[in-house]
């Protein structure tokens, strides 16, 4: 008797995960908007397991290890405002161990080292284009293009990165909504409205910044106040939305809740009642904790590593299910 397709798929995925080798790591440059961005890459590798240290950050990946000979899905990771390319390294490694190539650019103009565009209308235009530039770079690379399955491309974003990946699947943002939001609700959403220059020149509805090569996205604590009625009218790709219950940076109901309401059946909401806004960022080394401040701190009783283990499993299950379905 022939096994059902779903059973065959599940066995194949479990087998791929069980046979996953160690993780390789590289850094390459990407050109976007006339600027060079640093990008971190994690990928399956046949090399023996090793460790790599980048400044204060150590991780279970081997620098410049050979790329595996399989054909892999690709996942982009977009950090939040003030973030960096290594901020979600644990999630990236988990995905690479499961058989994905993972690419995380450091967004120029909206990172820990460069905040020229943070909070501006230009930033909301630039970020999705950065991610499309990453796709162009990897799918045009002689080595990586042969290893990437173009039917299995997804993206993960945190905070402003959550907005960025939603724009990639066709979400249309209107920065004027942020100005109105922070005029009307500044006292109820104060941390968000204090970031960048939300009350600066807004322009109008942003152009379509979608990249149809991206088949599914995960948005963790996403910026959502710049999406209005009809913003997701042309979106067909599914999105897993994670609402962090103790988020004081992006407060309810204007962000994750707003996105879920506007997306309807394309949004799959997961709620983490105990998690705070920065919980999705990999733990910081003790040497940086004081300098970093709030993103490095957890409330009493909250276990960030346990939370990351749980949310990473949920993300992997979603991507495996949705992206594998794209191949049928």
Strand and helix map with partners:
Layout: H1 5-18, E1 22-32, E2 35-45, E3 52-54, E4 57-59, E5 62-63, E6 72-78, H2 89-97, E7 100-105, H3 121-139, E8 148-158, H4 160-168, H5 175-184, H6 190-194, E9 216-220, E10 239-244, H7 256-263, E11 267-272, H8 286-292, H9 304-325
Parallel strand pairs: 1-5, 6-7, 6-8, 8-9, 9-10, 10-11
Antiparallel strand pairs: 1-2, 2-7, 3-4
Written description of the protein model:
By secondary structure, this protein is an alpha/beta fold. Helices cover 31% and strands 22% of the residues. The protein is built from nine helices and eleven strands. It has helices at residues 5-18, 89-97, 121-139, 160-168, 175-184, 190-194, 256-263, 286-292, 304-325; strands at 22-32, 35-45, 52-54, 57-59, 62-63, 72-78, 100-105, 148-158, 216-220, 239-244, 267-272. The strands form two sheets. Strands 5-1-2-7-6-8-9-10-11 form a nine-stranded mixed sheet, sandwiched between helices. Strands 3-4 form a two-stranded antiparallel ribbon. Strand 6, helix 2 and strand 7 (100-105) form a beta-alpha-beta unit. Helix 3 (121-139) crosses helix 4. The chain is globular, with a radius of gyration of 19 Å. Mean pLDDT is 91; it is low at 1-19.
Taking the sheet with the most strands, its summary is: 9 strands, mixed
**Average pLDDT metric:** 91
Put simply, the count of helices is: 9
Fraction in beta strands: 15-25%
Would you tell me the structural class of the helices and strands? alpha/beta
Quaternary state reads: single chain
How much helical structure, as a percent, in the residues?
25-40%
């Amino acid at each position: 008797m022939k096994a059902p397709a779903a059973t065959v798929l599940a066995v194949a995925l479990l087998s791929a995960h069980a046979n996953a080798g160690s993780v390789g790591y590289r850094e390459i440059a990407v050109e976007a908007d006339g600027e060079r961005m640093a990008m971190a890459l994690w990928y399956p590798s046949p090399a023996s397991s090793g460790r790599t240290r980048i400044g204060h950050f150590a991780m279970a990946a081997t620098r410049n290890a050979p790329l595996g000979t399989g054909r892999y899905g690709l996942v982009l990771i977009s950090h939040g405002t003030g973030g960096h390319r290594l901020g979600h390294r644990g999630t990236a490694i988990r995905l690479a161990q499961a058989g994905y190539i993972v690419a995380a650019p450091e967004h120029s103009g909206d990172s820990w080292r460069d905040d020229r565009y943070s909070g501006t209308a230009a930033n909301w235009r630039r970020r999705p284009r950065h991610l499309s530039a990453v796709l162009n770079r990897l799918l045009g690379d002689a080595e990586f293009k042969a290893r990437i399955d173009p039917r299995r491309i997804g993206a993960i974003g945190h905070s402003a990165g959550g907005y960025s990946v939603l724009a990639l699947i066709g979400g249309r943002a209107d920065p004027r909504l942020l100005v109105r939001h922070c005029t009307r609700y500044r006292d109820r959403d104060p941390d968000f409205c204090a970031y960048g220059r939300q009350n600066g020149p807004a322009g109008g509805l942003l152009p379509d910044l979608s990249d149809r090569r991206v088949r599914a996205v995960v948005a963790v604590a996403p910026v959502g106040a710049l999406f209005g009625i009809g913003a997701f009218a042309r979106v067909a790709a599914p999105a897993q939305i994670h609402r962090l219950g103790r988020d004081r940076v992006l407060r309810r109901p204007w962000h994750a809740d707003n996105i879920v309401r506007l997306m309807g059946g394309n949004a799959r909401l997961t709620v983490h009642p105990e998690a705070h806004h920065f919980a999705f960022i990999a733990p910081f080394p003790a040497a940086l904790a004081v300098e970093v401040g709030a993103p490095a701190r957890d409330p009493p009783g909250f276990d960030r590593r346990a939370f990351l283990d749980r949310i990473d499993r949920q993300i992997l299950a979603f991507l495996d299910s949705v992206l594998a379905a794209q191949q049928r």
